[in-house]
């Protein structure tokens, strides 16, 4: 078999795997129906959270290896990873699957996207143009009559702030648009969740 046929066969096998293997399929589109199912699943999971309130993973800060959970905009995925292997994971799987999600992993990825889009929309509503304002401030810093060491320190501080803003606002516009009509429901689900704590 020549090299081209071998490569073509490998590509075809890869495509078939992506199309046929559960969990490897494309991300679920974020739309009103998916967002409603996610929010409803959060409400349905509140008794489970109460039941396992004292579990190490329930605080959201300790992973299953005892290390601090990683920071970032994947809170649902991180929480699922922390609870993997605990009996609550199977109970959670049952709830999220009853709300139309293929698996906890799919539910977690959808939740991460919803939370990231919610954070981006909230930040833009509360501080419109914050990223542009920070970029303008960086430009002004370059022209400021300050010692280079002070400029460098300010650049680093502003760079850290920019990275934080970017991580909170770097959601696809389609996700932000999908979440906008459901902001109040999402907030209620999370506020209710934290009030229960």
Write structural notes for this entry:
This protein has helices at 3-20, 32-51, 75-83, 87-98, 104-126, 130-143, 148-169, 173-179, 183-196. By secondary structure, it is mostly helical. The chain has a domain at 29-126 and 173-196. Helix 2 runs parallel beside helix 9 and helix 5 packs across helix 8 (173-179).
Kindly list the characteristics that best describe this protein.
197 residues, 9 helices, mainly alpha, single chain, 0% strand, elongated, disordered N terminus
Query: What percentage of amino acids are in beta strands?
Result: under 5%
Low-pLDDT windows of residues: 1-26, 61-71
The number of strands is 0
Specify the biggest β-sheet.
Answer: none
Which series of helices and strands comes N to C? HHHHHHHHH
Mean of all residue-level pLDDT scores: 76
Radius of gyration: 22 Å
- Derived from helix and strand composition plus strand pairing, the structural class reads mainly alpha
Write down the overall geometry: elongated
Show the helix and strand layout.
Blueprint: H1 3-20, H2 32-51, H3 75-83, H4 87-98, H5 104-126, H6 130-143, H7 148-169, H8 173-179, H9 183-196
Helix pairs in contact: 2-4, 2-9, 3-5, 5-8, 6-7
In short:
This protein is mainly alpha-helical and about 200 residues long. The chain is about 70% helix and about 0% strand.
């Amino acid at each position: 078999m020549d090299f081209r046929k071998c490569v073509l066969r490998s590509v075809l096998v890869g495509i078939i795997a992506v199309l046929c293997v559960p969990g490897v399929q494309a991300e679920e589109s974020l739309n009103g129906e998916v967002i409603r199912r996610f929010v409803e699943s959060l409400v349905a999971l509140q008794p489970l959270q109460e039941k396992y309130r004292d579990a190490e993973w329930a605080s959201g800060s300790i992973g299953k290896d005892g290390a601090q959970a990683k920071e970032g905009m994947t809170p649902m995925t991180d929480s699922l990873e922390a609870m993997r292997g605990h009996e609550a994971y199977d109970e959670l799987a049952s709830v999220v699957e009853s709300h139309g999600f293929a698996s906890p992993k799919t539910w977690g990825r959808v939740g991460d996207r919803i939370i990231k889009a919610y954070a981006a929309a909230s930040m833009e509503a509360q501080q419109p143009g914050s990223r542009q304002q920070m970029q303008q401030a960086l430009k002004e810093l370059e022209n400021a009559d300050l010692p280079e060491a002070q400029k460098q320190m300010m650049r680093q501080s502003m760079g850290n702030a920019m990275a934080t803003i970017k991580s909170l606002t770097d959601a696809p516009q389609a996700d932000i648009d999908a979440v906008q009509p459901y902001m109040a429901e999402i907030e209620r689900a999370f506020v209710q969740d934290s009030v229960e704590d």
